[in-house]
Design a protein that fits this description.
Radius of gyration: 17 Å
Distance between the termini: 13 Å
Strand order of the largest sheet: 2-5-1-6-7
Oligomer: single chain
Helix content: 40-55%
Structural class: alpha/beta
Number of helices: 9
Order of helices and strands: EHEHHEEHHEEHHHEH
């Protein structure tokens, strides 16, 4: 049976870089945000979101993520209602994905909100990726063309590094690509022998 390893970290911590490195090693990685984005545009989920938030969240019969974000990110109750639609769909999809990859000893689930969503409970171990705040802000500003204030606002909706670290089995301090890969390789050896 496969061991499921959670991979998490705050926005701009470098989870995606590590996930891509893991994939390059031939280990399957489930990218929860990408899968959630795809699932949000399936007919069933679109209908549920529209019935909950109205037709103004649609653009060309697809969910307009920006319009939806404007509704939910400043309203914890509405964010909770959106999560109650999306998270069960992602969990069901992930379970199916695990079944399709059961011949691999290790499977990784990369999710920014692994703890917040409760999906860490499905993992045999959790790896948290950290980086200094200023580094994270610079990475996200460059990647998303976002301003500092909007990035900080997004960070407010995630656990702090301290909270994630306290609940994780392993921690990677992502400062340089070379050193980060080395840290991951050490963790991978421990996971394989666990």
């Amino acid at each position: 049976m496969s061991k499921i390893i959670g991979l998490t970290g705050g926005i701009g911590s470098g989870k995606t870089m590590i996930a891509n490195y893991i994939k390059s090693l031939g280990i399957p990685v489930y990218i929860a945000d990408d899968e959630a984005r795809a699932l949000m545009n399936t007919n069933e989920i679109v209908q549920m979101i529209v019935s909950e938030f109205g037709r103004e969240v649609l653009l060309d019969n697809q969910i307009n993520r920006e319009a939806l974000a404007n509704i939910v990110f400043n309203n914890p109750e509405k964010l909770k209602r959106l999560n109650n639609i999306v998270h069960p769909a992602v969990k069901k999809h992930f379970n199916s994905w695990v079944g399709n990859h059961k011949n691999h000893p290790l499977l990784f689930k990369e999710a920014a909100i692994l703890f917040e969503s409760g999906s860490y409970k499905d993992c045999d171990a959790v790896v948290t990726v950290t980086a200094p705040l200023e580094t994270r802000l610079q990475r996200v500003a460059k990647r998303d063309k976002s301003d500092r204030e909007s990035i900080l606002k997004r960070m407010e909706h995630q656990w702090t590094d301290e909270e994630r670290i306290a609940n994780s089995d392993y921690v990677i301090q992502n400062l340089t690509v070379e050193d980060t890969k080395k840290q991951f390789d050490e963790i991978l050896n421990l996971l394989k022998n666990r």
